[in-house]
Design a protein that fits this description.
Protein name: KCD14 protein
Radius of gyration: 27 Å
CATH topology of the largest domain: Arc Repressor Mutant, subunit A
Strand content: 15-25%
Number of strands: 8
Oligomer: single chain
Number of domains: 2
Distance between the termini: 68 Å
InterPro entries: BTB/POZ_dom (IPR000210), KCTD7/14_C (IPR057890), SKP1/BTB/POZ_sf (IPR011333), T1-type_BTB (IPR003131)
Helix content: 40-55%
CATH class of the largest domain: Mainly Alpha
């Protein structure tokens, strides 16, 4: 009895080892099923995907014995197509780029970064936003203010002050001092040293908040009579619609 019990786990280990060495590999990627070859998966030795199938498998298997990767499966077909034929995808670029980064497939990452979509985001838009002080923090601040004002309301608004130059920043502060409102609730963006305009920044704010799942719009903020400056020179109202 003792000899038999010792041999059972050994048999499972041998079976698992043989399955690992099979040139044909079945994958379950987030519920999507794929069949490919071990050589395809290991095409780029420095990638995380190759590492998963080098030596002892570093993956769990599902109930059918397929190797399971806990990632979105829909876009894995583009990763697989690139490994098979070096074909760079022309659709779902942003999503495929995220997966290429996860699997650390360096040649695909570089080629995707040359695509207009990724190039425009990383080199143009992100480089611009990096020059806008506290941009990401201000986006989160806007969301917190909007959520705090959403109680029993269909919409909540956030006033934003946008200034491009140091001179405008000084004028904006004077204008802000004459506003009859809680100045702590006004979110200030700028100044910055880059080509994009105020309207470009406003579009970026809307894009990044919408990317977080919020429904948002903006318009120039018109202050009451007696305001010392044209309010639309600096101030904009962002409307969050909740239902």
């Amino acid at each position: 009895m003792s000899i038999s019990s010792e041999h059972k786990p050994l048999g499972k280990q041998v079976t698992s080892s043989l399955h690992m060495l099979s040139p044909i590999v079945e994958l379950n990627v987030g519920g999507e099923l794929y069949t490919t070859t071990l050589s395809t998966l290991k095409k780029h030795p420095g990638s995380k995907l190759a590492e998963m199938f080098t030596g002892q498998p570093k993956l769990r298997t599902d109930s059918e014995g397929r190797f399971f990767i806990d990632r979105p499966g829909t876009h894995f077909k583009y990763i697989l197509e690139y490994l098979r034929s070096n074909q760079v995808p022309t659709q779902c670029i942003q999503d495929v780029y995220k997966e290429a980064l996860f699997y650390d497939i360096e040649p695909l990452i570089k080629q995707l970064e040359d695509s207009p979509q990724i190039f425009g985001e990383l080199v143009a838009r992100r480089q611009f936003l990096a020059r806008v002080p506290n941009y990401s923090e201000n986006i989160e601040l806007m969301i917190r203010i909007a959520r705090a004002e959403a109680v029993a309301s269909r919409q909540s608004s956030v006033i934003v002050c946008v200034v491009r130059t140091e001179e405008d920043a000084a004028r904006c502060q004077d204008a802000l001092n004459s506003l009859d409102m809680d100045k702590k609730s006004v979110v200030k963006f700028g100044p910055w040293k880059a080509v994009p305009s105020i309207s470009d920044l406003l579009d970026c704010i809307q894009m990044d908040i919408e990317a977080k799942g919020y429904k948002i719009s903006f318009q120039p903020h018109v202050a009451e009579k007696g305001f010392r400056f044209k309010s639309h020179d600096f101030f904009y109202k962002f409307l969050f619609t909740w239902w």
